[in-house]
Every structure is written in C-alpha cells, then in structure tokens.
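Re: weekly structure request thread

Next one in the queue (281 aa):
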Amino acid sequence: MDKKARSRWQEPPQVFGLLGNPVAHSLSPAMHRAAFRAMGLEAEYVAFQVVDLPSAIAGLRGLGLRGGSITIPFKEQVIPLLDEVDEVALKIGAVNTILNSGGRLTGHNTDWAGFLNALSSHVEIRGESFAILGGGGAARAAAYGIMSSGGRAIILNRDPQRARKVALELGCLCHPLERLGEVQAQVLINTTPVGMSPREDESPVSREMLGKFKLVMDMVYNPVRTKLLREAQEEGAVTITGVEMFVQQGADQIRLWTHMEPPLEVMRQVVLGHLEQGHGD
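Done, posted below.
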C-alpha cells in the first residue's frame, strides 16, 4: 500500500453500498468484504434495497459513504443524479460504480472491462459478430466493450424500440428478439436476468436457436450453470459463466475506490464458495 492510500485508510472505517432492487440475491457484499479483509482495510459494504433512487443517492452523499455499486434497475437512471460521469460511462449510457470525493459523486462503469476480461480469454473479438440479448446497462456495456475491441455488436430485445434506442446511441445494429435465428453471429451474450435464481428453469431463448452459436456467455452468475448455458453446451457450444465478469467488474470497482490492487483469487473463491453452498438467490 502506498503512503497516500495508507493515509486515506487510517481514517474511520469506510462504508460502501450496493444500490438496487432487488439486492437480497447479490453476492457483492460477501465478495467486497472478503477483499477488504484480505487487503487489511477497515471497510464495510452494505446492500440497500432502493425504493426511491434520488433519496438513496442523497443518502449516500449525506451519510458520507465512500462509494457505491449500482445494479438493476438503476444503471441508467442514476446518471442525472450525479455530479460528474466519466467519459466511458457517458458513452455507454450506464453507471455501475460511484466514487464519493468529499461529497462530489462521480459515476464510472466497470462492467465493460470486466466483461472483456471474461470474454477475451475465449474468443478473438476483432472481426467477430456478437448477438447481445437485452437492452439495459449490461447490454450497453457489452456492446461498447465489443466495439472498442474491433468486434461487431448486434442488440436483440423483445421491445424493438428499446433495441433501436440502444443501437442508435452506441452506433451498432439491432433486431427484434424473434429474429435471432436470422442474425449472422457465432457468439451469443445474455445480459438479461432471465434464468437467475430462483427462476432457474427459464432461458431467454429456445434450445433450437442455440445450435448456430460456437460460444455462449451468460452474465447471470447464480446459478453458475444456467439453463441457457446447460442447453448451449449440450448443443456443442463453448460456454462462459457470469462469475468471472462479476469478479472482474468488482475488482475494478475496488481499484477505483482504493487505488490498490484487489485480491482477485480471494474474491473468486468467495463467490464460488457461496454459490456451491447455495447462498444468494
């Protein structure tokens, strides 16, 4: 730990919060608390189920929380409530991380880099086409990450207007979800919560659509092997679980908050351990 970082953490224990609805299922508190302990930091991380986002952001500022994580459904809604948003988060149109510097709240996005870290070890992104299911903050982050690495992003959503809005703002292609079978892509990315516990028997697409894809990634991390991934594997596709992206985006949050290197393997093992024990929904 450098002297500047150590001085910052000699202050009273720092508090960070997860803002979303629902949040009971999230393993972010367990993962971040374990990371802070391993780093020797006096810090706490608390999940808040938000019913009024403007009041929650005012509370984060007023209570002096050092930072926050933003999750479904607030990644886009939070932007106008912040004092500043960094360039990448503005381009994506979604914020998943807040840094509080003396009462000034700055929004960042670590989803896109976490996504790329998880994806790039399995496929060459440049020149490849990716079908992205969804239209929220995670879909935006995935599309931005793919395009920034030379790939081609195609947004698919049940609501054609929502798909068009995302595609127009990011400069990518879009189609209604029912046209998935016509899309020329060999990689499928699910950014929706479909299939997340406790609704493990659901999948965002039918099994007969999966045979065309050589690789399928699901951002849902609980359960680790979603119905989508199980069926894709049975159809011959390589699959990527949501765990690695979850860990990587959390690690980038800690870097922003602390200017220190987080213990990736500790974070990864805590998440996997909780999932194996059936914790989190």
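DSSP finds ten helices and twelve strands in the chain. The two ends are 35 Å apart (CA to CA).
Next request, please.
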